[in-house]
Amino acid sequence: MGFLSTGFKSFDTKTQGLETKSTYLIVGSKDSGKEMFVYKLVSSLLANKADVVYVLTRKSSTDLVTDINKTGFNLGQYLGESFKVLDDFSRTISPTMVDNAFTKVLNGPVDLTGLNVAVSSVSNEFLRNGGEVVDVFDSLSQLLIYNNSPTLFRFLQFVCGKSKLSGVTSIFLLDEEMHTPEINETIRSLIDVVISLKLENGKRYFTMSGGQKEVLDWSLLE
Amino acid sequence: MSDPFFGVGKLDGDLDGFPPQKTVVINASPDVGNEVFGYQISHANLSNDKKVLLFLNRMSPAAYLAEMKEYNLPANDNLKIIDAYSNITGIKSQPTKNIVAVDNPYNKEEISKKLSAELDAGYDLVIFDSLSLFSDIFDIDFMFSIIDLVNSKIKDSKLSSVMLFTDWGYGEDVVSRLYKSANATIEVKGIEKRVIFGQYFAVVKCDWIEKSMPRTALFKAVKPGGIKIYIPKILVTGPTDAGKSSFIHSASKTAVSVDKLGGTIALDHGHIDFDGYSADLFGTPGQERFDPLLELLGGEAIGVLLVVDSTKPDQFPRALEMLRKTETFGLPIVVVANKADLNGALETDDIRKRLHLEDSVPVIKTVAEDPSSIDPNQPTKLKSEGVDSALRSLFSQLT
Description:
The complex is a heterodimer.
Chain A: E1 3-4, H1 9-15, E2 18-19, E3 23-28, H2 34-47, E4 51-56, H3 61-70, E5 83-87, E6 103-105, H4 112-127, E7 133-138, H5 140-146, H6 149-166, E8 169-174, H7 181-190, E9 193-200, E10 203-209, E11 215-220
Parallel strand pairs in A: 3-8, 3-9, 4-5, 4-7, 5-6, 7-8
Antiparallel strand pairs in A: 1-2, 9-10, 10-11
Chain B: H1 9-15, E1 23-28, H2 35-46, E2 52-56, H3 61-70, E3 79-83, E4 99-101, H4 108-119, E5 125-128, H5 132-137, H6 140-155, E6 160-166, H7 172-181, E7 184-192, E8 196-206, E9 215-222, E10 226-229, E11 233-237, H8 244-251, E12 256-260, E13 263-274, E14 277-283, H9 294-298, E15 301-309, H10 316-325, E16 333-338, H11 348-354, E17 363-365, H12 384-398
Parallel strand pairs in B: 1-6, 1-7, 2-3, 2-5, 3-4, 5-6, 11-14, 11-15, 15-16, 16-17
Antiparallel strand pairs in B: 7-8, 8-9, 9-10, 12-13, 13-14
């Protein structure tokens, strides 16, 4: 079992980073910094030669690239190489949106089969390179808007199982405030490790439960 | 006018198309999808002047028609679409003479009513792009009520139906009930180890033919082109002088090499018909100066024979490098431990360990035929026992 650096010194010191071939759920309120955490994680992964598949459900790939570049990390050299985007958002507003060099445009959040086939296909391409592959699902909450919860649970169970089988590390974002405690609890039960984030007095904190190295008390994220 | 048909040669050949008043379920695993069968069946029948009704709840009509075009399977004016998708997204469904809009795709009554009305309108074929979404969005009972509605309409018309279903784990009872509701069932699945390296369809039920089931075929969904029966490609790779050409020439009577001064400089190719399998073997050059070719040669391979010289463990890192450069990590693999009878040859367990391979990876010994029969101008022939064993071992992983 290897570990992937998140790019956050305090996090990596306490946890060794993310265990490869595991599934992670990143939760927190809207201002907790989930996206910021993932963008920095993606930057770190790419810099360390991992391959990343990024599933988008609430913004376009152009917006994602802009947002990551704003963090100071230049995605340019990785686009279409070790970083590929699956855009499950754009066709909900523009049905004839087409692919570009680093983005495959999917049908939309109702077509979970199309999403699963695309994730599996791109991950397989990366796996054949022999390196670490990380799939990021940003986010489950958007999929829950369009699909009922049992459907989403079946999808998640299947994706997590496949992820283990193929040796991919998968990361799911969830806005728990949007869903019932029962839905949140079921999703947590399907995933190996839960990373919780919060913003307090202008500083960000994290906990991590379920992994080999748990951090159960809120710790500064920096 | 002829009956509806699949537009997939293998299916039409095996099943003789499908007669009117029949329902066909195409059940895919979530990894492979079955939507291209819908595009192809739709295109083939539209092109044959059939009137086709499409129930669409997975994507917008514009996106569906664009996808059909990308596969070079375009639709025409004979297609009518019930759009039960657009109004659940930010796209407003636009009714036209070819599109019936479902105003509220979450309303069972509206869906049933509009579908029922269209089914009475004299179509030859109705295609459900995603039957499983009836279950996902509503419930299993509603999905079966839709099937019952279609089957009741079929009885009194010339209509046939194709229902695309994705099995997300609804349970054996659901799948069993679904199959009982259909006249024919085709399963679409992936072949996988760590990665999916192929997909196949299998006709598991058909009540209008006498042929034995299941009838299976590997296939690929190609843009443009649609469903194509897939002929497997097996890559034979390994370091210089390990015996790749010898293996291919021993396995195939029709093997050819592009070589110069005794070393393969481009590729070997050999076709084999063995143990009921038909396959093409593609050999790579071993010399580092040809490494730029390796990715190209490794493309589309679904299995790997890694040939190593059992007496030269110093070449094993190069063997692994070639796996990486051919981008074949994760595919089914057999290690061919050649020259296993020479002094200094390592045992199979030692070879597996030094190559850092899992215990499940087969390592098969091969040896040359009688040295007195070796022609210095031809690749050395290997004894058939080892060659056959290696092929058999790889094929068993592929099925």
